[in-house]
Design goal:
alpha+beta; 4 helices
């Protein structure tokens, strides 16, 4: 009788483990395959950042940078830098609209981070605003800020090379 009880507990534990594994895998599949709601994600970046003071929060980052290149050239430079980023693809918008949104997925689980970019004329050059944010969770562990900082540095190098 005691042996029978241990067998039942073992079967229940195994079944529970399989159930939890299936729930976790379903969540990961959903994260990878969930459609992107363009109307909710392709929105103008908030204000508050300046070229000297980016806004970095738990779930995202907002960077503003000024460049010598005119807006049309700036869009080409942005495409060069952004689309070379691993697991990053175009989501919505256009240079003509003045705003483009991209999605970058994490390597292991495929969590999406969205970055909306705007370019505006600024004197003889351009002002670029980059707004990166996560879709799921509360914290991105600084990933968006790190990626946007890298993009700004790469754009500064291209801008200086002229």
């Amino acid at each position: 009788m005691e042996q029978e009880g241990k067998g039942m507990i073992r079967k229940t534990a195994i079944n529970t483990a399989w159930l939890l594994l299936m729930i976790a895998l379903s969540g990961l599949v959903y994260i990878r395959l969930a459609p992107d709601d363009i109307a909710q994600l392709h929105v103008a970046p908030p204000t508050g950042a300046t070229p000297d003071a980016p806004v970095i929060e738990q779930g995202g980052a907002l960077f503003v940078a000024d460049f010598k290149a005119p807006p049309q050239q700036m869009w080409h430079m942005l495409q060069q830098v952004i689309l070379l980023t691993p697991r990053t693809k175009y989501l919505a918008g256009s240079a003509e609209e003045g705003m483009i949104t991209y999605v970058t997925r994490s390597l292991v689980f495929g969590f999406p981070d969205y970055t909306t970019v705007t370019v505006e004329p600024n004197g003889q050059g351009s002002r670029v605003t980059l707004f990166g944010r996560l879709r799921y969770g509360r914290s991105d562990f600084g990933v968006n800020a790190k990626r946007l900082r890298g993009w700004v540095e790469a754009l500064e190098t291209l801008d200086q090379a002229g």
